[in-house]
């Protein structure tokens, strides 16, 4: 049995996880800061040192940057998930976790140094003013939005503003070879955390959640309600690559599947105080089959849901061992617009297991444990997962589960070959999307006659488009045996086309036929009727 493979993305993925993993919320103190933070010699020592540097050091020094470095170094000594958020990052971080921002409602590429619209947010400000995919935005309120030296944050800053304020845009439309000016009124634009939802089979819904923001539970309930109307009696909840978010949102979502009084999780702080969270009676999917998809990049809030269901003998967890993050952070303001997310407690699943992996040897070793999975064989065979017997727990129905470094799924699905993962990574890291944008920019009218349903059912990527993609990739030094994976690449090209033409739902639905975990769910759900169909799809990978 092949247990080791070379994987091309683990370092990139680990870096992304280091920045993104979070579970917790904002901390609101009952006491005033003066009462909470009393003067002490440790604080005075740091303040005095900074003052000496500021006033007496021989050279001019930016003491703000020294403070930033000092705060980061202090937090690095604590744990991998206590982090500092500088003032200039707070708006972006807050928007992402809030789930919306005020802007003009476009997705764009800085294509050839010009803002090029990929698509507009349906019924958003730009959509209502007639801006279309492929349009170039040249100026905003007289400020130029093209050129090599213009950073993305500068562009975004010119397009954002106060709700109800207007921005005057100069737009070039390539398909009509004309330039025009319009005023767009800024409004609230959602940042969707429910990335996609649709009917996977006649009676099974599929919902993909990419993080747990303030808006996630509302989005989830709305998607679930719509799918129930379409006949959903079962659910596949996709938490793959979901790094976490707000603890309370994960609790609300888990509550949808658990009966009144069932334990969701409990937390314990440094004083030993235990806080137990139980399900209520309002869950809409308590007696229906649910499958939860996880992988090595599913962390914190994702693991809370998977652990709560697994420990209560609800549903089936499918995939690969999750990341292993069992710490809870609180966001605390530092008074100058910056903040820290400080670990304030540990959380435990209903059986009492902590799924936090060890971080006693520092951050570098901590994230190395993640990349080691790519080389140990763990992602290929479940037998390669080594867990001590002391970390063994038992659910109420007698199922053995483990703590100490992630949620081990009930049903294991191995990672694909290096080449298969490369094809997936070309999609997830935007390679295919950028190529498709160029293709549509040259020939957008070709697709005008397709409806969503017709595109999914009838459209096929031809050899001409495939060869163009191969040439595009080779010219940019991407090396792989494209022809061994021609059918997979063609399907991913179709999915990338669908995303830009019709949105994330159609993109996800097209990819589902190549998704090994989803095909495993179909087999598990109806092994007699569906197994042959799923195996046929798998054999084409």
UniProtKB/TrEMBL annotation:
Gene Ontology terms, MF aspect: endopeptidase activity; serine-type peptidase activity
GO biological process: proteolysis; signal transduction
Domain annotation Tail specific protease: ranges: 177-360
CDD domains xref list: cpPDZ_CPP-like, Peptidase_S41_CPP
Database matches in Gene3D superfamilies: 2-enoyl-CoA Hydratase, Chain A, domain 1, 2.30.42.10, 3.30.750.44
Pfam families with a match to the protein in the record: PDZ_2, Peptidase_S41
GO cellular component: outer membrane-bounded periplasmic space
Keyword Protease: yes
UniProt keyword annotations, A-Z: Hydrolase, Membrane, Protease, Serine protease, Transmembrane, Transmembrane helix
TM region(s), chain numbering: 7-29
Domain PDZ residues, every copy: 100-175
InterPro entries noted in UniProt: ClpP/crotonase-like_dom_sf (IPR029045), PDZ (IPR001478), PDZ_sf (IPR036034), Peptidase_S41A (IPR004447), Tail-specific_protease (IPR005151)
Keyword Methyltransferase appears in the UniProt entry: no
UniProt record similarity statement: Belongs to the peptidase S41A family.
PANTHER family associated with the record: CARBOXY-TERMINAL PROCESSING PROTEASE CTPA (PTHR32060:SF30), TAIL-SPECIFIC PROTEASE (PTHR32060)
Protein name: S41 family peptidase
Organism expressing this protein natively: Zobellia amurskyensis
């Amino acid at each position: 049995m092949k247990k080791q493979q070379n994987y091309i993305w683990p370092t990139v993925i680990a870096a992304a996880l280091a920045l993104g993993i979070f579970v917790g919320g904002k901390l609101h103190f009952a006491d005033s800061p003066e009462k909470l933070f009393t003067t002490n010699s440790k604080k005075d020592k740091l303040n005095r040192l900074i003052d000496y540097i500021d006033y007496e050091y021989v050279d001019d020094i930016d003491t703000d940057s020294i403070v930033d470095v000092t705060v980061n170094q202090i937090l690095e000594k604590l744990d991998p998930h206590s982090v500092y958020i500088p003032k200039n990052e707070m708006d972006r971080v807050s928007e992402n976790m809030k789930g919306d921002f005020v802007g003009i409602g476009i997705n764009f590429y800085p294509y050839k140094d010009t803002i090029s619209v990929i698509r507009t947010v349906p019924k958003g400000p730009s959509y209502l003013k007639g801006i279309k995919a492929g349009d170039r935005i040249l100026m905003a309120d007289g400020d130029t939005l093209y050129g090599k030296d213009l950073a993305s944050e500068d562009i975004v800053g010119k397009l954002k503003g106060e709700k109800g304020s207007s921005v005057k845009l100069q737009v070039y439309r390539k398909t009509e070879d004309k330039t025009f000016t319009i005023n767009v009124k800024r409004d609230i634009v959602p940042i969707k955390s429910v990335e996609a939802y649709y009917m996977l089979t006649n009676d099974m819904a599929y919902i993909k959640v990419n993080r747990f923001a303030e808006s996630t539970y509302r989005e989830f309930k709305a998607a679930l309600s719509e799918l129930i109307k379409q006949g959903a009696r079962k659910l596949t909840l996709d938490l793959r690559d979901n790094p976490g978010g707000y603890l309370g949102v994960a609790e609300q979502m888990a509550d949808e599947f658990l009966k009144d009084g069932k334990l969701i999780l409990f937390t314990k702080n440094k004083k030993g105080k235990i806080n137990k969270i139980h399900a209520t009676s309002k869950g809409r999917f308590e007696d229906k089959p649910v499958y939860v998809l996880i992988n090595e990049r599913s962390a914190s809030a994702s693991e809370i849901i998977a652990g709560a269901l697994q420990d209560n003998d609800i549903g089936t967890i499918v995939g690969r061992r999750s990341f292993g993050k069992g710490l809870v952070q609180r966001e605390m303001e530092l008074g100058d617009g910056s903040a820290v997310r400080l670990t304030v407690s540990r959380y435990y699943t209903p059986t009492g297991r902590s799924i936090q992996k060890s971080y006693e040897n520092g951050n570098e070793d901590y994230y190395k444990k993640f990349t080691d999975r790519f080389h140990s064989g763990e992602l290929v065979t479940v037998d390669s997962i080594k867990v001590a017997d002391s970390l063994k727990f038992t659910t109420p129905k007698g199922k053995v589960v483990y703590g100490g470094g992630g949620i081990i799924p009930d049903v294991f699905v191995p990672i694909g070959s290096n080449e298969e993962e490369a094809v997936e990574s070309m999609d997830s890291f935007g390679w295919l999307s950028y190529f498709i944008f160029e293709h549509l920019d040259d020939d957008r009218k070709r697709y005008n006659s397709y409806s969503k349903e017709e595109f999914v059912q009838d459209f096929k990527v031809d050899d001409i488009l495939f060869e163009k993609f191969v040439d595009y990739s080779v010219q940019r030094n991407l090396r792989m045996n494209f022809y061994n994976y021609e059918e997979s690449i063609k399907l991913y090209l179709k999915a990338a086309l669908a995303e830009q033409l019709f949105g994330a739902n159609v993109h996800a639905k097209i990819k589902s036929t190549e998704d090994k975990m989803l095909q495993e769910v179909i087999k598990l759900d109806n092994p007699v009727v569906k197994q042959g169909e799923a195996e046929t799809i798998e054999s084409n990978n």
